[in-house]
Specification:
It is built from 6 helices and 12 strands. The protein is of the alpha/beta class.
């Protein structure tokens, strides 16, 4: 299943438009905060699909019966660009465990690249809800490698793959190379074009550089 939030009118469209806008992008603090706010909106939407149980809450004046989420959550993200986005999920899933994946593109002289998987820090994900987030889903290769690496830590009950901007090619890559049973893809928006160097067009540029400054 693929859910594209831009297909419905909501306040999130404003936040996505701002992280795309080349003038507003100059404010790196606002860029990070917008990614965080987008993560919070995704967290709210994803929470609707958790397991819930009725519980009694004692107030100063009596008993209130409420349906509360029971699912155990692991928030995972790909460094470094995913950190502000990840923090938005953590703001809402404040008792969640967390996982971090270090992966980057290694470019070759002919302009092609491979994904270098370097490090994974993760709790057990067995039987839990896994939320794997990355701001950009371009070729889809990083997401595939990250997901398959996380499976070494167990079999999640359900996985939510979440991105702010995806390409059609990236979505199709994930659907082709990942077993989509118990997997849901969430995207803020999906763009049609992917360049020969796997940059999304119109996209927004390099999310890591915009959030934290250009790398050497």
């Amino acid at each position: 299943m693929v859910n594209i939030l831009a297909q419905e009118n909501s306040l999130m469209n404003r936040f996505v438009s701002e992280i795309r806008d080349k003038e507003i992008q100059r404010d790196s603090m606002r860029f990070r905060r917008n990614m965080e706010r987008i993560g919070e909106i995704f967290a709210y939407e994803i929470s609707k699909h958790f397991d819930y149980k009725n519980q009694e809450i004692t107030t100063p004046l009596g008993i209130s019966k409420m349906s509360l989420p029971q699912s155990k959550v692991v928030n995972a993200t790909i460094l470094r660009a995913g950190l502000p986005f990840h923090n938005g999920f953590l703001n809402y899933f404040d008792t969640a465990e967390n996982a971090f994946i270090s992966a980057h593109r290694k470019y070759h002289k002919d302009g092609t690249f491979t994904i270098q998987f370097e490090h994974l820090s993760s709790p057990s994900i067995d039987g839990k809800i896994l939320i794997l987030s990355d701001p950009m889903l371009a070729s889809g290769a990083s997401m595939e490698i990250a997901y398959k690496g996380l499976l070494e830590k167990g079999t999640p009950k359900h996985t939510h793959i979440v991105t702010i901007i995806a390409s059609n090619q990236g979505v199709n890559h994930v659907k082709k190379h990942i077993n989509m049973k118990n997997v849901t893809i969430w995207a803020g928006d999906v763009d049609d074009e992917l360049t020969s160097k796997s940059y999304i067009v119109p996209g927004l540029g390099d999310a890591g550089d915009l959030a934290f400054g250009s790398k050497v």
